[in-house]
Queue: 2 jobs
Job 1
Amino acid sequence: MEKIIYNFGTSFVNNYVYFHNDKMILIDTGYENDYDHFKKMMEKAGFTLLMIDYVFITHSHSDHVGFLKRLLEVNKKALIISSLEAKERMKTGQNQKAFYVGFLSSFLGKLNKSRISYPSIDDDKRFIPYTEQNKELLKDMLGGDIIETTGHTKDSLSLLLTDKKCL
Ligand SMILES: [Zn+2]
């Protein structure tokens, strides 16, 4: 059976939510100020932020981890799954230049600082990094295979769900 995958994002960013083994999994958070929108969308669907068990982070850009810090403050149990490199980068709260949008983002950055930085996350206890040893565990937890997709940034991961949806 196909999984139901919700998208509680905005027209700019996706915030996918799905269930696996009765755990609620969120893929990426939006920009810092997308928090209220996401919360509202969750509640409209009958969910709360407290229900989230795992947050899978594809990479540490402000449009993917923007309200992660705030979410972790509200939801004390949620664990973050990301690459080791993304975990370290999130301690800085600064976007790493993407390979192909480097010029564009530095241009946009001059226009709007919140687009290139975000509240930093520095709490190793909240992370399950994607490593060789954690591979099988994470596959079980997420119901899919994590694939390293270093095309966009060096810290990028993708998730291929067992029903063949690639997120
Ligand atoms: Zn990005």
Note: The helical segments are 35-44, 62-65, 68-74, 84-89, 102-111, 135-142.
Job 2
Amino acid sequence: MLNMESMARVGAWEGYAVSSVQWFEAGEKGPRPEVWIELRPRGNRAHRCSGCGRKVHQIHDWHERWVRDLPCFEADTKLLVNRCRVACPRCGPRVERVEWLAPYARVTRRMAQSVAKLCKILAIKHVAEHFGLRWDAVKAIDKAAMEAELGEPDFSGVTILLIDEFALRKGHRYATVVMDGLTKRVLWVGKGRGREDIRPFFEMLGEEGCRRIQAVGMDMSAAFEGEVRAQCPQAEVVFDLFHVVMKYGREVIDRVRVDEANRLKQDKATRKVVKGAKWLLLRNWENLPDDGAKVRLNELLEANQALMTVYLLKDDLKQLWDYKREGWARRAWNDWLDRARSSAIAPLITFAENLAKRLDGILAHCRFAIHTSLIEGVNNKIKLLKRIGYGYRDDAYFFLKIRSAFPGIPG
Ligand SMILES: [Zn+2]
């Protein structure tokens, strides 16, 4: 059997001794076994003020407080801690500084760390069940841990930005995420996707920070482009491949597929195939499964000239992002534009003419190779965070989660 002194050593509650221990079976106090440990301060030691950190001799008062610690084997552990408030000449009455317990905390520091660690991979609900804590207690611990971990964002070395929007929740509310294109760190997340919505980021970045920005990768949203040109006029706007190809999928491939399906009203069997081919057409060839999908896609394209054209032009459009030299990229673009114009496919021609007006943003890629995989990565992670079901009724908490998931690579 553990004696009090070994118990105190196992617990490592610095400055405190164990004065009593009680064990309870499951059902006695709660649904799970519990151990109650009473801690008494060891005599004759200095007390530090939690405000200024100085040693203070005068005690203001003592009070007892229940605090949760990590479980002892199977038992939920509850500590009854006698805490002192010092009468600090500088700060007034203040709780004593204790390394293992933050002022006014309901759980020990090591327990808070474990909670925050599990919250990186599990939903609040599961962490709360695991530790026998309340849902809002777990959320508050996790939020405080992320705030401490992330601190005030430091924008000093930032020269390349990536801006992207994402759906906050169903009902089409949006938010915007800004990343450092070099370190992959999420710098800022804010509600909305309009010009004035992203302005607070540039205000935080400051005039000097804005002047350092060389390039900004983004989708073809007019709001982002307008605000970047106003705040960082020297920066190049770079349209990333991921977004342009997504737009092509929506505005060209999907529309041609629907038009073709409508045209095939009489031929019900073929119409069904064309209507159902959305994902075959939008996915990359190399990502298609080997269960006959490639064969089906080939048959579909062979039978349908318009679909074949827009499908092939999608692949050629992507290749524009492979060029390192602007001259080559421009030549490839002109060739692509000619083919689009002579296709007689209306949605394709419209898309091509719109893109032609914003060619600079595509050619800028030759000077600033912004990796589309970063934007895709952040998009996928946001989807995953939403699926895990973090408490994203609280936007501030959800935004911290996103920043915490992309702390950046050092250097
Ligand atoms: Zn003080």
Note: Residues 114-151 form one domain.
